[in-house]
Amino acid sequence: MSDVNGNGKFLVGIFDDDDVVLKAVKDIKKEGVRIHEVYSPFPIHGLDVALGHPRSRLGIAAFLFALSGTTTALLLTFYTEGFDWPMIVGGKDSFSPIIYVPIIFELTVLFCALGMVGTFLVSNGLGPTVKPLMYDLRTTDNKFAMAIDLSKNTIGEGDIEQILRKSGAAEVNVKQF
Amino acid sequence: MSHVTSAVRTPLVTGGKTYADVTEDISRQVEGSPTREWTIAFTISVIVLLYGTACVFWTWWEGLGVWGLNKTVGWAWDITNFVWWVGIGHAGTLISAILLLFRQKWRTAVNRAAEAMTIFAVICAASFILMHMGRPWLAYWALPLPNTFGSLWVNFKSPLVWDVFAISTYFTVSLVFWYMGLVPDLATIRDRARSKVSRYIYGAFALGWNGSAKTWARYEYMSLILAGLSTPLVLSVHTIVSMDFATSVIPGWHTTIFPPYFVAGAIFSGFAMVQNLVLIIRVVFKLEDYITLEHIESMNKVITLTGSIVGVAYLTEFFIAWYSGVEFESYAFINRATGPYWWAYWAMMTCNVITPQLFWSRAIRRSIVWTFTLSVVVNIGMWFERFVIIVTSLHRDYLPSSWAMFHPTLFDISDYIFSFGLFFTLFLLFSKFLPVVNMAEVKTVIKSSSEKLPVSVSGVAKGERVANPTFNKGVE
Transmembrane ranges (chain A) (predicted)? Predict the structure, then answer.
């Protein structure tokens, strides 16, 4: 998993409400605690910014894959109809990019979509054989978990627990990986 | 804040649901034993599918002579069914992609079922291409394979080859979009699974999803780009399908209005099919709190809009046929309305133009019975639209000596029935083994759209921390 940093001891704060966890992230960071990651059953807008995650570059990957699709379509149509087996059908030129717009468009979309989804899966370490690292099984149902890697924090475990509870955590658990 | 919504908006989720309720209500049908209704429906579908499959194989075994095609009408039910099924698929992409870009939150309750409908409808459409090939074992000839493979290169100038690219891309992208949308919900089912087998299977398909903030952020970004890709894609697919006709020189086909007219018609019939499926789902799976009258009314508004566009398109092509001064073109249209297929033309006009206008009435728009009935009527009408375009344009050639009528045979009818068996079998399997409503997405709108507004909303709107959130307490 991309978010596993070896074995470690984590303090996991469980929250009941997404607004509370979003506010808690900001409060806890102000206290100087380094948050490992937050897990939720649905996307919380603004959470990635609050956690300081960099903006996704999937768009760049998507553009490059789209470009490769366009190039493939152009090369395919040029090679087959313009070079390998030139034919004049219906009075149209052997190679005329206008006629091939549907092919170019479809391959651009196809390459872009498949490439981007593939990039997404690889960059997040997702795959059929991946065993998920779950800090709390309820985070795919109705709870929100904030994981704090104790080895990455200088503040003591007891203090962090107190900060978590003060920020609205309904329970705080210890998780060892 | 994402959760703040005007209090005057009608709730999208009723019954004061919590996050846990959403999981419980939607997962119930996946985790429980099949219901009696599901078992009966599935049995009927499989019987129909088996009968249809036998007929399709007989069609291939004997050749396309078993259909009612003749020297004049070389395309009939096969292409009618193909265009009809592709059109039905379009509503799924429209709901999942275009409405996502427009930030229409009501789509969340119906997008999953609509996307599934898209996948299965495109499979049915593709089956008619295979049937029409006559020799399906040579279907790979439609792919751009090297000369040395046994045939020449495909003709990239042909709209039929554009179709191959368009439909296969559409199917692949829709499948990916649908599957990626399922992943978070599959993880929910995985984490609730009680048996080892289901934990393993759902776990494999959930791809190790754990809902981290970083993954969610990337996931949303990816969904947005996929939606941005799917939007022109859905428009391109039916545009290209319409070019199968528009690039020909047959009167009644050779018109520039076809691309937008076909796209509007596709969305029209697609939404009608979504209505039919969703109305059944909400009752059978007891999802009335999630698929509310608001959702049904919103979809009926889309049906009214697209039905009106289709109506305008019918009138426009009739007007242009007269205005062009081309007697063959004028004849094609007058013959449609008054010739031997007048009944099909007027069935089309009645079902697609007149009856959907009843949705201007709020009472009808919000009536389950009216909605279901009119949606069936729309689907019948849209089938007739494709039949009228295809058969009435072909049955009268330039030479009166070539004129002929098309009469469907048992195999025309049975092969169409096959597609219903295939569609409903696949849809019922989907509805049993996968969550029919997107749990993760509904959870994002429930707070702002629930009729029981949580205390936390007002507090956070001011950017303050909520001291005692009460929203999710019901599940403690």
Answer: 58-79, 99-122
